[in-house]
Specification:
heterodimer, A: mainly beta, six-stranded mixed sheet, B: mainly beta, seven-stranded mixed sheet, 11 strands
């Protein structure tokens, strides 16, 4: 079945540092890829998405590129802020068979940004 | 516009008790689903529904029942709670099965 693997956390950075959170996936066909963010005490919010190979999703300074050849969707931000402290989830939506339409999530990465 | 509303936000149960987690949406979305979130495991799909009157099992359905009598509501029932069901539960909706998902704020359940 489909699976998503995220880099182990937690990640601790200083404000204005560069952020990368790695995400790789296994799936049949061409799934859609997502990054969700969860702030303390809240539900998940969609951060960005990409629906086909080489698409780049971007939002709030975060970017991720759908790399079919490496089955990856790494999240990056050039300069993090304290307000970016949250849990980040990589996810895919299945494209075929019994996985069609279903979201599969990675383990989540806790990001803490210090002033 | 409330979006996706989950109640209660917190609940403590004793082993063997039953309860229902409520999920209501006002976005007229056809697709609704329940996930549980456990440390180091991300979110796992429990049950889902593609429309009123239709439900199906996800990855971890054992110990949970659902029904979908209306478009707006998708309750999750625990018939006999077990400590292994201690988790944070999220309801999510989408316009259709393959479109963006919107999440509720979660219910933190502890079974002692």
């Amino acid at each position: 079945g489909d699976s998503v693997t995220q880099m182990e956390g937690p990640v601790t950075l200083s404000e204005e540092a560069f952020l990368t959170i790695n995400c790789t996936y296994t799936a049949t066909g061409y799934p859609s890829l997502f990054w969700y963010v969860q702030y303390p005490g809240e539900g998940l919010q969609l951060l960005l998405k990409a629906t086909k190979a080489d698409d780049k999703g971007s939002n709030k300074g975060f970017e991720a590129t759908y790399r079919k050849e490496t089955t990856s969707f790494h999240l990056e931000k050039g300069s993090v802020q304290v307000s970016d402290s949250a849990v980040y989830f990589c996810a895919l939506r299945g494209a075929g068979g019994t996985s069609y339409g279903k979201l599969t999530f990675g383990q989540g990465t806790i990001l803490t940004v210090h002033p | 516009n409330a979006g996706v509303t989950q109640t209660p936000k917190f609940q403590v149960l004793k082993t063997g008790q039953s309860m229902t987690l409520q999920c209501a949406q006002d976005m007229n979305h056809e697709y609704m689903s329940w996930y549980r979130q456990d440390p180091g495991m991300g979110l796992r799909l429990i049950h889902y529904s593609v429309g009123a009157g239709i439900t199906d099992q996800g990855e971890v359905p054992n110990g949970y029942n659902v029904s979908r009598s209306t478009t707006e509501d998708f309750p999750l029932r625990l018939l006999s709670a077990a400590p292994s069901q201690t988790s944070v539960y999220f309801c999510a909706t989408a316009r259709q099965e393959n479109t963006e998902a919107f999440f509720g704020q979660g219910t933190r359940l502890t079974v002692v």
